[in-house]
Amino acid sequence: MSFGVLRKTPINQRSPTRRNTELVLVLFAAALGIACYLVFYFNRGLELPSVWPVAVGCWVALCLASHLLVRKMLPYADPVLLPCVLLLNGLGLATLNRLNYGAAINPAVLQLIYTAVGVVVFGVLLRLLRDYRVLQRYTYLLFVIGLGLLLMPLLPVIGKESGGSRIWIEVFGRSFQPAELAKIVLTLAFASYLSDHRELLRSAGRRFLGITWPRVRDLGPIAMIWVVSLVVLVFQSDLGTSLLFFGLFVVMLYVATDQVAWPIVGFVGFSGAAFLAYLFVGKVRIRVESWLIPFSDVDQNYQVIEGQFGLAWGGLTGRGIGMGRPTRVPLVDSDFISAAFGEELGMVGLFVIIMVYLLIVMRGLRAALGARDWFGKLLAAGLSFALALQVFAIIGGVTRLLPLTGLTTPFLSQGGSSLLANWLILAILLLISHQGRAPIEERDAEVVVDLADENTVLLPAVRQSVASEVSDEEVG
Amino acid sequence: MNKSVRRVAFIVGLMFLALLVNLSVSYLFRSDELLNSVHNRRVQEEQFGQPRGPIMAGNTAIAATASSGDPRIPNVRVYANGAMYAPVTGYYSFIYGRSHLEQDYNAQLSGTSAAQSVDRIIDALAGRQTAGAIVQTTINPQVQQAAWDAMQGYRGGAVVLDYTTGAILAYVSMPSYDPAMLSSLDYDAVEANWKALLADPNEPLSDRAGKEVFPPGSTFKLVTTAAALEAGWRPDTLVDSPRGLQLPDSDHVLTNFADASCGADRITMLDALKVSCNTAYANIGMALGEAALRRQAEAFGFNSAVSSDIWSAVSRFPTDQDLASLAMSAIGQYEVSASPLQMAMVSAAIANNGVQMEPYLVSEVRNPDLSVLSIHAKRVLRQSLSAQSAQLLQNMMVENVTSGGADAAGISGLSIGGKTGTAQSDPSRPVYYWFTGFVSEPHVAITIFVEHTPDGAAASSSLVAGRMFRTVAEALR
């Protein structure tokens, strides 16, 4: 897989920044979003809204601003990630506008504001976290914050139930999905924990069936996450988030240790829990039924069925933007936005969107390969995989590959928390790829990694910049 | 560690491949089933938005296709003078389906009938959209308008038939509704309209011209007279006509309208018709017997449905009656019920010398290029009574207009025959007023039925329905 090839750049040779490549791609992505926005009005024979130059202007400004931020602060960052995200974000904005045409309150406006906030937060994060490795120190604090965010909707006053899932909190009249932020914080915590304990988890254990099995006492953390996932599943009725966190943790464990036993243990554990949930949690059972036999109960499975009708109606090339009836699908703004794309842009359009996600994920994993420290490697791999798993679960759910899980479609779905969180993920991936690709003299704050903290090897901290690198020879 | 990252990349690749394969498989193998599902509104809406041929009354398109402005459902059904023609056209609604001609001629209007299949193939080869056929009704817009105007403010129905062919020239139900309220693409509004129409105490959705039956009252005396004439009675045959008639095996004393006398205790059948004498007709009915009366009623079409392109409710003449009930039936009370269309068919058969023509609403169906797809051939339903009896009865009805109780309908210079009717099924309910008759030139039969007068005051059928009859008849000149 070409994405995954680690290109070894001689340390002292200046690698190209490729910022101009990024600019061209950013402009292309921006133009595609604008086209998607305007074509709706042309197709439907409607007059353009009077604010269209403002909307287009704001959008172009945001695209250029995010590009300039990267150009200024992360000149060596991956040039494909930002354009891919802008492409999705633009399509999402245009589609939200189209889906809510004629509505009193147009959520696309709010979404554009959230995008602006996302770009600002993106810039702030780039500024503050020139070296993301500072975060590695706060393993347990991050755990506590992450779990706190994850379980927050269960709190009595601020927790809010909607659509059968208790995954929202409401503060000052605005609802927020803390799991989106928890996803990032917990990934940081996992990365931090695992980069510290990887040697231990890696070496200790007993070999059986050609696989090194972990010791029972090392199962603690995974058991804890398993329990948390179960709590999320049972008390928040949130199949998607539960799957996401568990999958994320297991994969990070695997990346940290290189041991296949972890995914196997994880898979068996999750399957068992999921089966029990199917037996005892009504909502999970409904989801499975609407996946396998949707027409057995047309009213109950209305959403899934309408989504299917939309995809079938779109066919190969789609009805054209504005020419379908995606608003027949409940929650088409959020969970089912991929059905709207399938209906209006067709199977081909949905393919393209899936491939753009794949490109983002692969570029993220590429950043993981290029990262020169364990923490960054785990972080990039974890965040990329989380994104992949989320896209897989929600698009797979909408297209009936899997039972439906209530996850947002990153960068496309309506929702501020999801959009902000995903812009944060982009910032972190760009940071890691920049750190990986930048020539030594341009890397920031190498001193942060203090090898005295490393339990395994004690080296005098003379040439820290070299020591902090994880050479490919060591792992490969 | 990089090895496992690469493996994760491989797994991610597989996951995304699964998404793509699943989408492709769905597209290839699930699409047909999904698109043909009865629950798939998208497909139905596209069909709903196909162009449709017009329904014509004279040279006016009373139902036609107009551009909706939404390219997804490009066409919307519009109705000219919708409420007036609603019982003819029916409605074409996405949510509530179709009714009347929109339903009965749906295949032709949408261009999918068997007769249009060759055109469909040619159009498909030429890449054109098949246009629907033009449905030409027998309705005469002028007469329809006159009947509609005459009945404004009342509740009831009116039917005008060409008695030589059976063509329906006017078909009015009042109050009515505009079918555009149900054909709109604004489904929420359609739903609200539908609920409002159902909740309306005046029942605007009911078709009072042909699909509802009411006690016909004294207009039924035409049937009783026909039975008597067929049994050998003459217009001058004398009948007992007491002021009050004690019905056999009953404590009910039958009286005449407004408790009046019929002029004498024994009068001719002609006079009995002219003063609409209840007691005389009760005696005629009892003398003829139930079998003869029912045979005559059925010869006029009672107890059977009209099933050409106008689906009427079945008018009833009951069986197994005792003598008291029979006496009441003979004057159009008890359980006798008839639609205005049925009573128009009675007058039509009498006026057409006993030959009852099948009523119909669509004269021809043409392709958009005006070539004829189908044309109505007039059809004799039955010989309702002998030509001789029919002519006697015609004269009796004409005399009833010139010098009898139906004089309100008279127009000098026209040969008009008619019969009034007043029915009250229950003292607490409003009175039903009827007028049925014929105009010899142009040969039409007209029935006016008024369910309820707006002021609720006691008026006579002659005054209310008779005048409407005259208004409609004048529109025919």
Structural class of chain A: mainly alpha
Range of strand content of chain A:
under 5%
Biggest sheet features of chain A: 3 strands, antiparallel
Mean pLDDT reading of chain B = 89
Strands of the widest sheet of chain A, in order across it, are 1-2-3
How would you classify the helix and strand content of chain B by structural class? alpha+beta
Q: N-to-C terminal Cα separation of chain B, in Å?
A: 101 Å
End-to-end separation of chain A: 17 Å
CATH homologous superfamily descriptor of the domain at 217-362 and 378-475 in chain B:
DD-peptidase/beta-lactamase superfamily
What is the ordering of alpha helices and beta strands of chain A?
Answer: HHHHHEEEHEEHHHHHHHHHH
Helical content class of chain A: 55-70%
Kindly state the mean pLDDT of chain A as a whole number?
83
Give the chain pair forming the largest contact, with residue counts.
Answer: A-B, 61 and 37 residues
Major sheet size, sense and barrel closure of chain B: 6 strands, mixed
Query: What is the C-level CATH assignment of the domain at 217-362 and 378-475 in chain B?
Result: Alpha Beta
Helical residue percent of chain B? 25-40%
Strand content of chain B: 15-25%
Number of helices of chain B: 17
Would you identify the CATH architecture of the domain at 217-362 and 378-475 in chain B? 3-Layer(aba) Sandwich
Structure summarized in a few sentences:
The complex is a heterodimer of chains A (476) and B (477). With 476 residues, chain A is mainly alpha-helical.
Plain-language structure description:
The complex is a heterodimer of chains A (about 475) and B (about 475). Chain A has helices spanning about 20-45, 50-75, 80-100, 105-130, 140-150, 180-205, 220-235, 240-255, 260-280, 280-290, 300-315, 335-370, 375-400, 415-435, 465, 470-475, and strands at about 160, 165-170, 175, 205-210, 210-215. By secondary structure, chain A is mostly helical. Chain A has a domain at about 445-475. In chain A, strands 1-2-3 form a three-stranded antiparallel beta sheet, with no helix packed on it. In chain A, strands 4-5 form a two-stranded antiparallel ribbon. In chain A, strand 1 and strand 2 (about 165-170) form a beta hairpin. The longest helix of chain A has about 35 residues, at about 335-370. Chain A is globular, with a radius of gyration of 23 Å. The model of chain A is unreliable at about 1-5 and about 445-475 (pLDDT under 50). By secondary structure, chain B is α+β, with helices and mostly antiparallel strands. Chain B has a domain at about 215-360 and about 380-475: 3-Layer(aba) Sandwich (Beta-lactamase), CATH 3.40.710. Chain B contains 17 helices and 19 strands. In chain B, strand 17 (about 415-425) and strand 18 form a beta hairpin. Chain B is elongated and about 120 Å long. Chains A and B meet through helix 8, helix 11, helix 12 and helix 13 of A and helix 1 and helix 2 of B.
